[in-house]
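I hope you will forgive my troubling you with a question about protein structure. The full record is reproduced below for your convenience:

——
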Amino acid sequence: MTTAQVDHWAAELAVMGPGISEAVAWAGLVIDRAEGTRLTDIEGNSYLDLMGGAGVNLIGHSHPAYIAAMTEQLNTWQIGAHASRARLDALLGLAALLPSGLDRVQLYSSGAEAVESAIRVAKSATGKFEILSFWGGFHGRTAAALAATGGARTGLGPAMPGVHTTPYANCYRCPLKTTYPGCGLACVDHARDSLREQSSGSLAAILVEPVQGRSGNVVPPPGYLTALHELAAEHDALLICDESMTGLGRTGTALASQHDDVTPDIAILGKGLGNGYPVSAVAAPTALMEAGPYGKPSASSSSYGGFPLACAAVSAVTRTVREERLADLAATLGATLLDHLRDLIPIAGIVGDIRGRGLAIGIELVTDQTNRKPLPKDHLRKVFTDLLNHGVLVMTGGSTLRLYPPLTATADELDQAADALARVLATHNALAES
């Protein structure tokens, strides 16, 4: 960090609360402008942005179609949830991408708000109140979302009752100490046993991320979401897929759940949905959306839900994803990038696992290949900083480097990022061995 950037951060922190992500604080950047996959700071330094606002940058910084749509809307109307061309275009754009059956959409302004809403839909439709969520997941920091977010409640007192948690299918760190496929998805059997022992018989929904983002882009094995859908059905409950980070093409399909040929009963969208404008959504069949009390007038509304600027953002994003076939591009580029990383970076030294789906990729770092002890925070920060010095900005999660390039990134840009990652990690491997 230069003196100018240090001074700028000091001025901000003197009046701002602590709500800054760890990786953003480590980077200490003061950005002047951004375009496509690149950020430029106030000193003129350029960075490949694989942090992407933790997966928000879906179609690239300052995409011309996005800028044009937002500018046009700013020049006409911004405030109110009345009907508008922008809202109709946004809803039709989502309908063109989402699986059939998810035919009703309610708009909100944050991921956590959408999670809360999805849970209310499930409770209203089933007449039940319990939720099953998973270790390592992240759904937000409001009441129900926080209760469903494992490991985030320390020091905050009792969580909202009625939420049960169970191990996720993290095959690299299997909490059941078994191995796929020989395990036969033992984690789902464990969830079934947990519900039998803990539930009061009133399970409304299973809430799950098809790829766990905060835990390092953990991709579950084939059949996992199918098995969870079946488990929900056993309890006359619903499957809610939190696709805030994975939806709209990032993993190579409109919804990540489609990789398992699963259409969730309720889908949550956010992050890339507005490509930087705060907007989220809940999608579900009409019969679920209209169930009371959620379906009553004003019971599902939001102060900013469906405002014109948010809708212009959604319309521009969905149109760009369709017209530029970005889901297909993410599948192709992501597979190539993953192969390139695995070719360049051996699973050795501090590199424990390289995984991903589409353009959501994780490189998990460890101190020991056998015990898989997570790399200490101070060492992870050194790796992060060295990458930044090589012109590559990444996200972190636990001891994992998380990569979220925009779906509009070029093959050359991704090759540059992979080469920088390989050089930095080779250096740290060499230091660890010396």
About this structure: Residues 105 and 407 are 24 Å apart (CA to CA). Residues 64-323 form a domain with the Aspartate Aminotransferase; domain 2 fold (CATH 3.40.640.10). The chain has two domains: 3-59+325-433, 64-323.
